[in-house]
Every structure is written in structure tokens, then in C-alpha cells.
Amino acid sequence: MSLPSNVHVSKHPCLVAKLSRLRSKETESREVKSLINEIALILGCEALASALTTVDGPQGETPIGYEYTTTTVQPQALSIVPILRSGLGMVEAIQTLLPEPVPVHHLGLYREPSTLEPVEYYNNLPHHISSTSSSDPGANNASSLAIVVDPVIATGGTCAAAIQTLKEWGAKKIVVLSVIAAADGVRRAAEEWPEAVEIWVAGVDSELTPNGMLKPGVGDVGDRLFLTIGK
Fold it and tell me: What contacts 2, CB < 8 A, 6 or more positions away?
């Protein structure tokens, strides 16, 4: 399967096995939540190893009195951007990985049923908050790196819309973490801003159903997480 160079499909054996378990209709909501978190943790390790670098910080002291040079990561202006609602299931894993707390900015997007195109209904990106590092009171504090989390990339429209929103906000680079993607959908998302976007997924399915679900897929992750199947 040919994919753009900015799309990375993990080959981690544990992740592949967990994805297989997530596909099963026998997997109950509690385990779905755990699997989404665990997959996000493994995928995040791989993605952030590529997206972040380490830099020396000030001198510190160990509990037994020895000095050492502290280490931090760059870029420091990071944020996590979950796509509501299923993206919420991946947030905790990325917070666990990052060495310091970072802002979480929510984007709400849904697919219009007849066209399958994205519609934005919620956006709490801090468009009007001044940057603390700038003397300009109207400066935008957009993240140097925005980490988008959304378990499923189907048609790619929602992911592409999120990328465009973050680009307009002023994000410099974007890492997208997704549990599973459709081949055509992830190609569409990857082409939205290829010079600044890297997409990491645990698996890729080749087909979509007529109503835009992955085949074989993992079902509706939001419904499985929040027990709203059949609503």
C-alpha cells in the first residue's frame, strides 16, 4: 500500500496485537478505553521521538547532593488538540509522555451525514490570548507543535479541517496521532499541509463503507467509549 512520506504506520508488535483486540465486537467499553489509551501511549512514544529534541537546562541537584545538568524538550510551546469526542480517549496517554503539563485545546467537528464533509461546532483555541514572550499585547500564542489526537481517520475530511484550522491559528508544526485510518482518508489529510504535518497511525484499512465507516475498522470509537451505541 503506497502512502505519502509524512504518513507513518507503526509496526510495533504489541500495538498491532492491541489493535486486533480493539477490532473485536466482544471488547467491552472498559477495555476499549484501556486499549485506546495504551495504543496512544505506544504511538505517542514513536511519534514524539521524531518530533521532539532534547536540550540542556540549568544545573540541578540529586537527593544525595550531586549536581547534574537538567534536560528538557524542544519545542517547548506544545499543545494537545483532541477532536471531540473520541479524541478525549487519547489525551491522558500523551499527557503521561510529555515531561511537563501542556495546554489541551478542544476542537469539535462532526461529519454531515449526506455529504460526509466536516462541520465545526466547537473551537477553544486561544485566538486572543497574548503571548507571554512577546511585547505585543495582541500577539498570538499558537503552539510551535500541536499534537492532534483522533482515533479514526475515515474520509480524512475532519483531520484535514483540523489541520487547516491549526494552520490558520498559527501552529508551526502538527503531529496527528490516530489509532486507525482509511488509506484514501489518510492520504487526503497528509496532503493538506505536507511540509508541516506528520501523521502516525497504528493501522490502515483499505476500504470505507458507503456511510464512511472503515472496513473492517473498529466501529464508532466515540460510541464504544461513552456507551452511546444506538443513540
Answer: none
CA 151 to the chain's CA centroid: 8
Sorted by sequence, the CB contacts under 8 Å of residue 116 that are 6+ apart come out as 155, 157, 211, 212
Distance of CA 52 to the CA centre of its chain: 15
> Are the beta carbons of 134 and 110 closer than 8 angstroms?
no
- What is d(CA 226, CA 151) in angstroms, rounded to the nearest whole number? 14
Q: From CA 201, how far away is CA 11, in angstroms rounded? A: 10
The whole-model pTM stands at 0.90
- The per-residue pLDDT for range 153-191, each reduced to its tens digit, is 999 999 999 999 999 999 999 999 999 999 999 999 999
Which residues lie below 8 Å from residue 180, measured CB to CB, with a gap of 6+? 19, 151, 152, 153, 201, 202, 203, 204, 205, 214, 217, 218
- How big is the CA angle at 175 (ends 124 and 213), to the nearest 5 degrees? 80
Pull the grid cell for residue 171: 501552529
Beta strands in 132-182 (DSSP E): 145-149, 152-153, 173-182
